[in-house]
Specification:
Helices cover about 45% and strands about 15% of the residues. The protein is of the alpha/beta class. The strands form two sheets. The chain has a seven-stranded parallel sheet, sandwiched between helices. Helix 1 packs across helix 7 and helix 3 crosses helix 4. The structure holds uridine-5'-diphosphate.
């Protein structure tokens, strides 16, 4: 069987790493399973791409489509053109896409039009918020998917409600947590730990990159001002996503306890998360990692496609509502943040289950 794996952006690399390892293990067992790794080039910045290949021992992609930056439509179009050629030159039995980025959707469309089966890892999750490009990517991708690999019973239920036939839904767990479990023992103290004299549970980590938060100068300013006021002077480490950087350059928001840094590598970033007092974020994947590491997580979004991070995890949604943000900080500093537990099947073996299923169904 020939599988083409697609990865284009930071969270994709973290999800694809354990799947490639599981394929290698299957090959060692004697299965005739070949794969081709296609990097679309959606993220090309070394901090958001190359570094992850190195740290997570992901083999070099067989091809990089080199699409680079652009508007949503420009990127979608460039990925589709590049991937169509790639599939014509290197036919396969199944295209496996992960997550919810532009590359996920664009390659699913190309594959389906070429009559190639589509497998979607992290299928079925929905925020219900169509202002998020990721939500549109999820809906389109799942409407074309043949094999749905899911992270939660909630995702299974969404798919059943949409009329997806039950035998096509495979509840396998969470590949992002496979990566976390595998590399937890290698998490690495970043140099800034000593430079800023950080201590365990004595600082906050913040990430912001969703268009809903970072496309408005006024909103970013309001959010950062409020967070600084509530932070009691605790150091806030803020690895800045390139999308957010453009806006911050214009704002000149300087505070003594706010430390802007470049996006960190996976091992250093998660070292910081693991030892933080709390995380403030609008990321999806980070809410899952914080849940598994039992770190309080304040999410600056009104919706989530990962409700289990709130219902059984450590995550709380506050949107950009000043009252909710204030309440979350009050709970945090009173030491009464809810304790999370680990969602079903987030056990480090999701990728193995995916590859086992693929070898029997394709
Ligand atoms: N991450 C990282 N370095 C950073 C910030 C995030 O390695 O400076 C990792 C994080 O641990 C998680 C992933 O990037 O695994 C989340 O990516 P992102 O927030 O870009 O995407 P989302 O999950 O929101 O789609």
């Amino acid at each position: 069987m020939n599988i083409t794996l697609v990865a284009g952006a930071r969270p994709n690399f973290i999800k694809i790493a354990p799947i490639i390892e599981a394929i290698h293990n299957k090959q060692t067992e004697g299965f005739l399973l070949n794969y081709r790794l296609v990097h679309t080039g959606q993220h090309y910045d070394e901090n958001l791409s190359g570094a992850f290949f190195e740290e997570l021992s992901i083999p070099a992609p067989h091809v990089n489509l080199g699409v680079g930056s652009g508007t949503q439509a420009e990127q979608t179009a460039a990925i589709m053109i590049g991937f169509e050629k790639e599939l014509q030159e290197n036919p396969c039995d199944v295209v496996l896409v992960v997550g919810d980025v532009t590359s996920t959707m664009a390659c699913a469309i190309v594959a389906k039009k070429a009559h190639v089966k589509v497998a979607h890892v992290e299928a079925g999750i929905r925020s219900g918020d169509l202002t998020m490009p990721e939500e549109i990517n999820r809906i389109v991708t799942d409407s074309l998917t043949d094999y749905f690999f899911t992270t939660s019973e909630y995702a299974n239920e969404n798919l059943r409600q949409l009329g997806v036939e039950v035998p096509k839904i495979f509840f396998v767990g969470n590949v992002m947590i496979d990566t976390l479990r595998k590399h937890e023992c290698r998490f690495k103290k970043p140099p800034l730990w000593d430079d800023l004299k950080l201590k365990n549970k004595n600082y906050l980590v913040m990430t912001l990159h969703r268009p809903s938060n970072v496309d408005s100068e006024q909103l970013v300013k309001k959010l950062i001002d409020q967070i600084i006021k509530l932070s009691k002077g605790y150091p806030i480490i803020f690895p800045v996503h390139p999308r957010t950087q453009k806006l911050l350059n214009a704002l000149h928001l300087n505070f003594k306890n706010l430390h802007y840094v470049n996006p960190l590598g996976y091992l250093e970033f998660n070292y910081l998360v693991k030892h933080a007092l709390a995380i403030i974020t609008d990321s999806g994947g980070i809410t899952e990692e914080a849940t598994v590491m039992d770190i309080p997580c304040i999410t600056l979004r009104n919706t989530t496609e990962r409700p289990e991070t709130c219902t059984i995890g450590t995550n709380v949604l506050v949107g950009n509502d000043p009252k909710k943000i204030k309440k979350a900080f009050k709970t945090l500093f009173s030491g009464t943040w809810k304790k999370g537990s680990i969602p079903e099947l987030w056990d480090g073996h999701a990728a193995k289950r995916i590859v086992n299923h693929l070898t029997t169904i394709v």
